[in-house]
Write a structure and sequence with these properties.
- The chain is mostly beta strands.
- It is built from two helices and 30 strands.
């Protein structure tokens, strides 16, 4: 079964919706009301002992404004960030990193002083938007009224595994002091929330810290001398290898270029995949008998809805039989999607918000990159070259008909977004192939 119409995206940026900041009393603007409070959240966090952390907060009534440009409510609390989970409402959240695996973390929640607030518009939503060339990304998208939920988020506390940094496992505890009810038309507020997190160390980690890690530990807010690492080296964000699900129901599709690919709910349905009662958290993607990570928008509710989708980084089939770039037989690389059993491998989501003083923040302006430039406009049989070897060991495609002796030819290459102010050296590697035969002399290229 082949999945059709995979949408290929050039670049994905998560774009923050413009927020309308309004101060003052209650205003009437286009029949939309504005609630505003001058209060800030009062919160404290502390370690009760080496394994128990506590967060306490006295919560004000949230500030709700209306973004008339997209007809969406914007919920804000001074002192808290807003969640940016793609395709879901943006609500205030407090996050804390822990040097622990998710199954080592337990928590208790106490809340008090419940109250409710009606919203005149659905809450703003963050979306991934494609960007190509010099085009500006879309600023905002109206909320998806088709996405239904009774309560979001379902729990006030969520635990996510972030990954490994130099063998240090990191899990993120997200605390949501407010919840949306009635498909996002009502806010459930609390006057106080206390969360107590306990770490129960297992035998998979051991204490290990070096002086070179001090800056990393400070940035992660992990106390020196208390860091725990895997007993054995671990590949970042790796997961125990899984066996290819032969004999299971599979969806097959192919890619022939490197890039980010999207598979929508509609694409799967149109291809004959029955999605009823399918938990999207069990979606697993395989390539060449190995599971590869995916990003799945909208999986947390356990239902693959109309607006949900899968994204992954697909790779063109690599040459595995000879020492040149493109495979001599096919560029197509086959991916397999299955579902219905264990939860699948996912990309880690991390916030890129700067949380340190700007004068202490290092902002990179460029990075090293290797660009492969190849044009395959001319085919040569090379019938008199390496006649004792199979034909596929040589690349038979070239830029053009070649450069004849005693002539000069100029080739122009375009680089994407080079740094014109970089004074460092760069290197270029050129591959040539001779076409003359026996006793033709030595080729010299200048």
């Amino acid at each position: 079964m082949s999945v059709k119409d995979i949408q290929r995206l050039s670049i994905l940026n998560i774009n923050n919706l413009y927020k309308t900041l309004v101060c003052g009393l209650i205003l009437l603007i286009s029949r939309d009301f504005l609630w505003s409070t001058g209060s800030e959240i009062k919160m404290t966090e502390r370690w009760l002992n080496a394994a128990t952390w506590q967060w306490q907060a006295e919560l004000p009534v949230p500030k709700v404004t209306i973004n008339n440009e997209i007809r969406a409510s914007v919920i804000e609390i001074s002192g808290l960030d807003n969640s940016v989970r793609g395709g879901f409402p943006s609500i205030p959240v407090y996050r804390k990193l822990f040097n622990a695996l998710p199954d080592e973390i337990t928590y208790q929640v106490q809340s008090g002083g419940q109250s409710y607030m009606q919203l005149s518009a659905l809450v703003e939503i963050f979306w991934d938007t494609p960007v190509t060339g010099n085009d500006s990304p879309s600023i905002a998208t109206p909320p998806d009224e088709s996405k239904s939920f009774s309560t979001y988020p379902m729990r006030l506390v969520e635990i996510d595994f972030i990954g490994y940094v130099k063998g240090v496992p990191l899990s993120c505890v997200s605390i949501y002091p407010y919840q949306l009810l009635d498909n996002g038309r009502q806010i459930k507020c609390f006057s106080t929330v206390t969360v107590q997190v306990a770490i129960k160390p297992g035998n998979r980690l051991q204490k290990n810290v070096s002086q070179s890690d001090e800056s990393l530990l400070k940035a992660l807010d992990i106390r020196s001398g208390e860091v725990r690492r895997l007993v054995k080296p671990h590949t970042p964000l790796a997961k125990t290898a899984s066996i290819f699900p032969a004999g299971k129901i599979l969806a097959r599709f192919t890619v022939d270029e490197d890039g980010i690919y999207r598979i929508s709910c509609k694409t799967l349905s149109d291809s004959g995949v029955v999605l009823k009662n399918v938990d999207p958290r069990t979606f697993r993607l395989y390539n060449q008998h190995k599971e590869v990570p995916i990003y799945l928008n909208g999986e947390s509710d356990g239902v693959f809805n109309r607006g949900d989708y899968i994204e992954f980084f697909g790779r063109r089939n690599r040459n595995s039989v000879a020492d040149y770039e493109y495979d001599p037989f096919s560029d197509k690389n086959v991916y397999w999607l299955t579902w219905g059993e264990n939860y699948g491998l996912r990309y880690a989501e991390e916030s890129v918000q700067v949380n340190s003083p700007i004068d202490e923040t290092i902002v990179p302006i460029d990075y090293l990159f290797t660009a492969h430039i190849e044009v395959n406009d001319a085919f040569h049989r090379l019938g008199q070259v390496d006649i004792d070897k199979p034909t596929y060991v040589r690349d038979h495609w070239f830029f053009d008909e070649g450069i004849y002796g005693g002539t000069t030819r100029q080739y122009t290459f375009q680089l994407s977004y080079p740094n014109p102010n970089n004074i460092k050296d760069f290197s270029a590697e050129l591959t040539l192939h001779g076409l003359t035969y026996d006793n033709a002399g030595i080729h010299e290229v200048k």
